[in-house]
Amino acid sequence: MRHRVSWLFAASLVAMDAVMASLAFAAAYWLRLQSEYENIAPFDDYWGMLTIHVVTVILAFFFYRLYHRQRATSHIDEFYAIFEAGSVGTIVAIAFISLIYKNELDYPRLMMVYAWVLTILLVSSGRVVHARWQWNLQARGLNQLRLVIVGSGEVGRMILQKIRQSPGLGYEVVGFIDDREPPSVLGVEVLGTTDDLPNLLETYRVDEVIVARPEASHQEILSIIARCEREKVTIKVFPDVFQIMASEVSIGDLNGLPLLTVRDIALRGWRLSLKRAVDILGSALALLILSPVMMLVAILIKLDSPGPVFYAQERMGLDANPFMMLKFRSMRSDAEKQTGPVWATPNDPRRTRIGAFIRRLSIDELPQFINVLLGDMSLVGPRPERPVFVEQFKKSIPRYMDRHKEKAGITGWAQVNGLRGDTSIIERTKYDLWYIENWSLLLDFKIILRTMTSAFLDRHAH
Fold first, then answer.
1. Hey, is 212 helix, strand or coil?
2. What is the phi/psi pair of residue 234, to 5°?
3. Looking at the predicted structure, is the pLDDT value of residue 367 above 90?
4. DSSP string, 20-88
5. I need a surface site. Which of 3, 308, 418, 437 has the fewest CB within 10 A?
6. Is 310 in contact with 327 (CB distance < 8 Å)?
7. What's the half-sphere exposure (Cβ side, CA atoms, 13 Å) at 66?
């Protein structure tokens, strides 16, 4: 049954892409019709071109494996893939059309551009609708995968919570596998030990196994995988991010001696200049667009409580150099007079009335665009901490100071993955280090888009 449903999802996705690519070509013809004053052929003469365009785009998507949709693929990642595959498909379509219709029917360059842009936009929109429909059906129990988690520690619990937060992914957690055999974890039964894996996979008809034991040795991981080999299950391993941090393993040499580079910093050279250019342009536009909102917030703060509009706080930035980070004041002016430096908490009694509102919507962080424009911060990067907390964390968290190899950011990879506020510093550090060593401009854009879409839904903002 599940295989038939999976086939139905794939077939309906192909049909959706075909419809959207057809609409894109028709819209391109209509736009050309509006912009051309000369006589042009009727649309019926373009049916052959439309067919070539749709078929080549669909084939390009097949070659780019866009019909092997991963359950956890985000809309942003899918858009990047559609942009690449759609561009290739459109170019191939233009080549075939030019060859087949040479000297017979005109295919203007402007219409080509329209068809390319509209194909990417409409196909992406169609896939968002299709994904929502698929996730809704999977959340209701259709096409679910039965899953066991090996390891009931902190990582195993985190994976379980992520799955529960995303029912649309279509995972049913059958249970945990753990050698310590506690009776249950967060209401999910522990089925047995790793020695019982082969029998448990068959008994519970498991489809996927997630190994959530990053502290385990390579030999232990291989042993667990070997026990799963008898059954046709998908095996995924949650890595020790402190050990496996680099985006790629590159091969170099030292005077003829081969060496593997497993740890490198992605952001250097021209990439650094490109990121700074994006920071300047993005922060300037943000300040220009948001200036009316910032003016209104400033007035409300002054009316709500005595004290300054802005609150400047020392934070650690690039190369652990301190800088003064700007925020709208959301607490009383004497908030830390009695407590000293402490983290904000939910329902913090030190907040003002307007402060509770702007903190919940992250409006208090808008002045940090000034820090970005001045070069103290970046749009995307690890969140800066106060020096007093940095001194504490660097003594207990491995590689914590490596976070400061990159400018602090208004938002970051850890933040868009829910690690904000009163969350695990260890996990946050892992995400920050992964970002630093895997940086790309597309990753920055992805983080910015995810921040914009989730800014009003962040439950950790307080």
1. coil
2. -85, 135
3. yes
4. HHHHHHHHHHHHHHHH--S----GGGGHHHHHHHHHHHHHHHHHTTTTS--TT--HHHHHHHHHHHHHH
5. 3
6. yes
7. 30
Q: Which H/E stretch holds residue 211?
A: strand 208-211
Q: What is the pLDDT of residue 242?
A: 46
Q: What is the pLDDT of residue 44?
A: 85
Phi, psi of 410 (to 5 degrees): -65, -40
pLDDT-derived band at 84, boundaries 50, 70, 90 = very high
Q: Which residue, 124, 77, 119, 72, is CA-closest to 445?
A: 77
Q: Which H or E run includes 427?
A: helix 425-437
Task: Give the torsion through C-alpha atoms of 145, 148, 150, 155, to 10 deg.
Answer: 70
Note whether 437 and 266 are within 8 A (CB): yes
Query: DSSP states of 363-409 as a string?
Result: GGGTTHHHHHHHTS-EEESPPP--HHHHHHHHHHSTTGGGGGGS--E
Pairing of strands 378-380, 145-150: unpaired
Sign of CA dihedral 301, 304, 308, 310: negative
First to last CA, the chain: 46
- Measured in whole angstroms, how far is the alpha carbon of residue 453 from the centre of its chain? 11
The mean of the pLDDT values for the chain is 82
**Domains with residue ranges and CATH for the chain:** 2-139 (no CATH), 145-237 (3.40.50.720), 270-454 (no CATH)
Q: What pLDDT does residue 57 have?
A: 95
Predicted pLDDT of residue 181: 67
Question: What is the number of residues in the chain?
Answer: 462
pLDDT score at 409? 92
Q: What is the pLDDT of residues 111-163, one digit of tens each?
A: 889 999 999 999 999 999 999 998 888 888 888 888 898 888 888 888 888 88
Q: How many angstroms separate the CA atoms of 308 and 333, rounded?
A: 8
Q: What is the DSSP string of 286-333?
A: HHHHHHHHHHHHHHHHHHHSSS-SEEEEEEE-GGG-EEEEEEE--B-T
SS3 content of the chain, % helix, strand, coil (to 5): 55, 15, 35
Nearest Cα neighbor of 60 from 87, 79, 80 is 87
Q: Which of 346, 363, 345 is nearest to 354 (CA)?
A: 363
Grade residue 52 by pLDDT with cuts at 50, 70 and 90: very high
Phi, psi values for residue 174, rounded to 5°: -75, -40
State the pLDDT at residue 107: 80
What SS3 state is found at 184?
strand
**Residue of 145, 236, 233, 462 lying closest to 331 (CA atoms):** 462
